[in-house]
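Exercise 3.2. Students should predict the tertiary structure of the chain below and write it as structure tokens, then compare their answer with the key that follows.

Predict this chain's 3D structure.
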Amino acid sequence: MDASLDASAQRQEIQRLTAGFDPRLLPLLPAPTLAPALAPMQLQADFLRHRFAQQLAAPRPAAPLELAERPWLDKPLTPSAVLLPLVQRKTLQVLLTQRAASLNNHAGQIAFAGGRLDPSDADAVACALREAREEIGLDAAHIEVLGTLAPYTTGTAFEITPVVALVRPGFALQLNRAEVDSAFEIALPHLMNPQAHFQQQAQAGGVQRHWWAMPSTDAQGQERFVWGASAGILRSLYQFLRAPQP
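Answer key:
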């Protein structure tokens, strides 16, 4: 994108290029290399606790992202965080949202609760917990933070730190309708199944764009198309769980 455009003009250009864009209409391309499946025990709460505790005790550099988005905007990255909540049901469920159609960024997309770091946020964890409370009314009393994943950069120039957490059932969500249209759960085993991980691509702004996509069905049987940053963050969690343990 032309670096001579100011931020407002760049945003307008993005809106023009992406108007009417629907990734569900694009082909689903298999990953270049089929990655191994995770063992069932790797998708259990105790294993997740152990794996993140290991990373905290003996940090290892994160594996490079297999697909990295190229920012559309010629501006400094905005530090942000999202909560990746794993609800502790019989099978762990990932709690996701559908963003309001009126938002300026990622309108109508499936996403994790989150946003940019405020000056009052001590760190990415504090930001993710605050945003989850503000967007979907998820009380921190139900949340057990496990750790963070490597930051993910979006095309809209947000540098997102995913905060992975277990969530104790019994919570009552209160959606902020200005930001969130709905909230729903998708089974973690499906989202961590590499056979459900696809890539997509499209030409926009003179650049070939690539991203992850994960067609899914939520706990109520409704089809949900997880793609872009959300799918990329879930793929990052898959990579973290399959990486050799310290």
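Discussion points: The chain is about 25% helix and 30% strand. Helices lie at 7-18, 45-57, 124-136, 188-191, 228-242.
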